[in-house]
Amino acid sequence: MSVLLKLAQKFNCFYLSGFHSSECKPFIVEGFQVGLIRPDVMRQLINFPEVFHITRGCVELNPAFRDYEGRSTKIDQVLRKLRDKNIFVTLKGWRDECYEVKTEFCTRSLLKMDRCATCLFGIRNYGVTINGYIRHPQKGQCLWFQKRSATKQTWPGKWDSMVSGGLSVGHGIFETAHKEAMEEASVPTSLLNKLTSAGCVSFYFESERGLFPNTEFVFDLELPLDFIPENADGEVECFEILPIKQCLPKILAPDFKTTSAPVVLDFLVRHGVITPENEPDYLKIIELLHIPLQNIYGNHYHIKENGVAIGDNV
Amino acid sequence: MSVLLKLAQKFNCFYLSGFHSSECKPFIVEGFQVGLIRPDVMRQLINFPEVFHITRGCVELNPAFRDYEGRSTKIDQVLRKLRDKNIFVTLKGWRDECYEVKTEFCTRSLLKMDRCATCLFGIRNYGVTINGYIRHPQKGQCLWFQKRSATKQTWPGKWDSMVSGGLSVGHGIFETAHKEAMEEASVPTSLLNKLTSAGCVSFYFESERGLFPNTEFVFDLELPLDFIPENADGEVECFEILPIKQCLPKILAPDFKTTSAPVVLDFLVRHGVITPENEPDYLKIIELLHIPLQNIYGNHYHIKENGVAIGDNV
């Protein structure tokens, strides 16, 4: 097995485990599965029976909370109590910034939740990443990377793509890309008109923090040779530019953020650096960059009287 | 649902049917699943009990045929008999050109089979497609298409990508891309050094002919403004070039080859024409361009005495 396939398996460790299906339970809101809940989280939610109905087959948000605001408020109250109990490491990184919780990306939101908490419920989350690159007359194509600040809540001090950010409540995809490019790397608006939408990657990672079914909207941005990114929000330690052939060792190193490797791999595939003739596991790797996250929770659940949830494909 | 998602569902009709799992049986060679067999094919194979062992759980190629040549010869004999009986429309297109039959793309081949017959066994097949394009100073990016000759065995008279071809026995991926570019469109070697590997698409289509789990290795080729493709092998009726914004109506029209639409969709995604802001089903479409074909048959089968095959993930 090639080192790149091993990397693709690493950021898909939860997908390839078969979702630990015997241990995790579907999380149901308004009859729709929106996530998966691990046993460690279940043991805490059981203390909030007025909010979560835990049965043999699933964890259901009390259907008495009928609207977006009501559901968001109740979940927020539980999460703040759990944060105060200091049980989950991820809740130490409280952001006061929420992600939407939906059945599919393009459907209406059922509730919102602080972004540090979505991994406790296996909620799909969405972000944008910008591959900033130049075409150097001697060195050829070169790609910019950022080193994350040592004070970041997640993956401090790790190397990462030039610009990325989560899609929080109230912000669009292109809007987030523009905002992050300006905040993280001081890319002026005049350069952002070259920003090109280039697809997405989807993968399902698990860590001690929780579950990460992640989809990244991917953008390429060709930059002038003399542009040097400068951080404006204190979240970046430094930037570095590398000839494209040196990017593989970069993302394979232990100081590269595991969940940012997929976007770089996708860039190297699309730009002809990783090819079917130099990478034996080419097809498997590309399939692992696009796992069917929009489908995995695509079930409508009927909650039966005996508490067993039955999933139907809709 | 958007028209593009409907198209992606059309070329994935078999994948989205759940592989008609109650009707189709795994096709097993040397203990590995390499395909799926529909009931109409099963009814014919039952007449060759010395070649195919058909049980409740699967169809197994007689394990007494122990090597590549032996297996290939036996299957070839059966296929020629079936061709003479005129039962399967696909066998009328006999090519005298074989595809390899493997458990995974990068593993050794277990046997070879005429390319017109692989759809009867649901064998994964592989091809190359070249997106030939120009950057026009006024019209912007424009993409070349070919109209298939009216005498082609499959999809006669339909519109298609500029250049494509199946990966037959003995030919490499880049080699096939170069060969087809020269034969189908007279692209000179001097222009082929700009050929850029750009990924792959995978989908699972079904038609009256059979089952098509297809993977296409995708190449982009920027061409000079004054290059006009000319066919050299009689398989193309004509070529046409379209501004990139007019490509969506082209692939949505009924005279476009359904199984060539994925590569064009992927091109339009990678080049920023289809974006998450103009296509509501963006994520689902991209996932349906990369279904996990390398995994679906990834089982090692133990043939039990009672004839029921048990699959284990390997």
Q: Key features?
A:
Nucleoside Triphosphate Pyrophosphohydrolase, four-stranded mixed β-sheet, Transcription Regulator spoIIAA, seven-stranded mixed β-sheet, homodimer, 314 residues, 15 strands, alpha+beta
Care to describe what's here?
The structure is a homodimer of 314-residue chains. Chain A has 314 residues and is of the alpha+beta class. Chain A folds into two domains: 20-123 and 294-313, Transcription Regulator spoIIAA, CATH 3.30.750.160; 125-288, Nucleoside Triphosphate Pyrophosphohydrolase (Alpha-Beta Complex), CATH 3.90.79. Helices cover 27% and strands 32% of the residues of chain A. The first copy, chain A, has eleven helices and 15 strands. In chain A, the strands form four sheets. In chain A, strands 7, 8, 9, 10, 11, 12 and 13 form a seven-stranded mixed β-sheet that branches. Chain A has a four-stranded mixed β-sheet with strand order 2-1-4-3. In chain A, strands 5-6 form a two-stranded antiparallel sheet. The longest helix of chain A has 18 residues, at 68-85. Chain A is globular and about 65 Å long. The two termini of chain A are 37 Å apart. The relative contact order of chain A is 0.18. The model of chain A has no long low-confidence stretch (mean pLDDT 94). Chains A and B meet through β11, α10 and α11 of A and β11, α10 and α11 of B. Chains A, B: This is Nudix hydrolase domain-containing protein. Chains A, B: It holds the Pfam family NUDIX. Chains A, B: GO terms for molecular function: 8-oxo-dGDP phosphatase activity.
